[in-house]
Structure formats: structure tokens, C-alpha cells
Amino acid sequence: MEKIVLASGNAGKLKEFSQLFSGWQIAVLPQSEFLQDEAEETGLSFIENALIKARHASRASGLPALADDSGLAVDALGGAPGIYSARYAGAGASDAENNQKLLQALKDVPAEKRGASFHCALAFVRTADDPVPLVCTARWSGVILAAPAGDQGFGYDPLFYVPSEQLTSAQLPREVKNRLSHRAHAVKKFEQLWHEEMVMPEQQAHSATGTKFF
Ligand SMILES: O=c1nc[nH]c2c1ncn2[C@H]1C[C@H](O)[C@@H](COP(=O)(O)OP(=O)(O)OP(=O)(O)O)O1
Ligand SMILES: [Mg+2]
Description:
Elements: E1 2-6, H1 11-20, E2 26-30, H2 46-61, E3 65-74, H3 95-105, E4 115-125, E5 134-144, E6 160-162, E7 167-168, H4 174-180, H5 182-203
Parallel strand pairs: 1-2, 1-3
Antiparallel strand pairs: 3-4, 4-5, 5-6, 6-7
Helix pairs in contact: 4-5
């Protein structure tokens, strides 16, 4: 079975990915099996950071790697915290501290102006220096509540209200979050790319255009 490394140290993400990849014919291994240090997220976009993390994990493991860079963009804050979501309340901040800081920043913003989106960028590299990575993005729109609700999930889930379900992302059954979320939709797009770039070229061994390095 093909092995790929999942380049994330976030337990909440890893749990979601294990569900999202459950039907796949590949072994998705957590990066903790190969490396201890985390990549420095120096990019200016989710895509750049996802690529940095994927290359870092592939370099350390010698395996193909998939990374997720994600975050919450709040309309009333001009898209903040965005790529800085994990470090919104400072380096190493907890989810609770980040949520608290967000509530404080939005304390005077009325309900109708509290729109926000989760963004997810996935980057897959076959090798650390892969010049043709597979990249896809997706977003999920919602509203930031004035107080947290729900205890499932991670990150900003307790503050992210999903209008279509009338629940926060932390109150949704996991299978519902894994159908609706930014990560779920990015994985769907990745599945399409994976099929086109990694499965089809193998089936069409004579194709001159396929790029499959393993
Ligand atoms: O579905 C989600 N539900 C709630 N919160 C979420 C979600 N998706 C991303 N988020 C938040 C968590 C963190 O504050 C930031 C991700 O930051 P991000 O750098 O991509 O991940 P991370 O540092 O936690 O782990 P890693 O970089 O090892 O994958 O956005
Ligand atoms: Mg991170």
C-alpha cells in the first residue's frame, strides 16, 4: 500500500483526516512517526504554509507528504486572524485563549456583521523538492457567536455557528462536520486531483503527460 505522511501536529485535524481518508487505499501516517520539530510557518498564505509543512515532512520522512494549513477569516476583522489563527493570542496559545481573544475583538460587533469563513489549503508533495505539488483549497462560511457552544472538534469550532444546521461546528455530529467543512471540501477536491494525477497516469502507462513519481 502507498504510504503518505500527514504533515500536522494538530490532534483535532489528525482525527478528522483519519475519518476523511477512511475509504482510501493508502496508508496515511502521522508526521510524529518521523519528526519531532515543526516547520516554521513563514508563508503569507494558507497555500504557502501548507507547502512549507508538506516539504518539511517529506524531507524528514523520505515519503510523500500531505499538509493542511487552515484558519478562520472574520469579515469584521478584515480577514484576521487568517493564517495567524493558531497564534492569534500569541505563540503557543491554546484554543481557549484564541477563542477568548476573538470574542474580545468582536465584543462591539452586532450579530449581522459577524460573518466568517474557515479556509483550508491542502498541499501534497511526492518528494521534498517536488516542483509540481498538488494543491487545493476550500472554505466554509458561518457566523461567530458571542459565547462558545459545544465540546466537539477543536480550535474555533465552539464559536463557529453553521446557519444551515443551526448548530456550532463543535455541536455538529462528526460525520456532519466531515461532510460540510472547509477540510471536507478540500479533501474532495484533493481526491479528484489524486485520481487524475496519481491513479490515472498509472493506468495509462503510455501517457507522456502523467507526472507520477512513485
Ligand atoms: O476545522 C476547524 N475547526 C476549528 N478551528 C480550526 C479548524 N481548522 C482550522 N482551525 C483553526 C485551528 C488553528 O487555530 C488554526 C489552524 O492553524 P494551522 O497552522 O493550520 O494548524 P496547527 O498549527 O494547529 O497544526 P499544524 O500546523 O501542525 O497542522 O485554524
Ligand atoms: Mg500550524
